[in-house]
Amino acid sequence: YSLKTYVLVEKPGVSFNYKYLLLANKDYNINPVVCSTFKTYKDNEIKDDCVVREIDTNIDGKKDILKFEAHFYTDQAVKSLKLLLFFNFQLNQLFTTTVESIAYLTHTLNEEVQKVCFYGDLILQQKSLLTSEVAAKITNKYVMEEAGYTNDNVIIIQAELVYKDHLIYYQPSIWEELKWIWIQYISCFLVLAYIAKH
């Protein structure tokens, strides 16, 4: 006897952990501009000039969008960006569990820019059934760049992620399977009892 794999659609309760790491590399990953909630990064100075907020657009008690914004000055144009955002996914529909995961954005700049905006949808990416590890995945990613750079003006990095409904694959417990078997058995028994009686 083997348990089936079930599929359900659930919008997880997504909450940002208010932990992040932004690396703005100027040249060959040497002395990047670092914005983070962490204390140190390879002995580099950390400039935490970031604003993060979550928005509940439809007022259902669940957050729908994350907006991230970082401001910093640099004496050289930024060549590439890496952004790590830490999230909790809370599932409640069939069982209750919380999964911590990291969303990862990376982008190489082909020209000097003053502003970069990331847009995308955040989903829970499963490597196997829900009993195993999962990762956050950003889909439908779009990047917008504002060309031109001067070291007198602030560099702005923005990210906007929409928390999406998506399919979740899980393996039911033995008790859940027995519950459905029992319901089917009772239904068949009642039908047969009715037929036998009449």
Provide an overview of this structure.
By secondary structure, the chain is mainly beta. It has one domain (8-171). Helices cover 12% and strands 52% of the residues. The chain contains one helix and eleven strands; from the N terminus they run βββββββββββα. The chain has one helix at 174-197; strands at residues 6-10, 13-25, 33-36, 50-55, 65-72, 80-91, 97-108, 113-126, 134-147, 155-163, 166-170. The strands form three sheets. The chain has a five-stranded mixed β-sheet with strand order 4-5-10-8-9, with no helix packed on it. It has a four-stranded antiparallel β-sheet with strand order 3-2-6-7, with no helix packed on it. The protein has a two-stranded antiparallel ribbon with strand order 1-11. Strand 8 and strand 9 form a beta hairpin. It starts with 5 loop residues before the first strand and ends with a helix. The mean pLDDT is 81.
Mean pLDDT: 81
The proportion of residues in beta strands is over 45%
Strand arrangement in the largest pleated sheet: 4-5-10-8-9
* Counted beta strands: 11
Which percent bin holds the helix content? 10-25%
InterPro entries: TMEM231
Keywords: Cell membrane, Cell projection, Cilium, Glycoprotein, Membrane, Transmembrane, Transmembrane helix
GO cellular component, one term: ciliary membrane
Organism: Heterotrigona itama
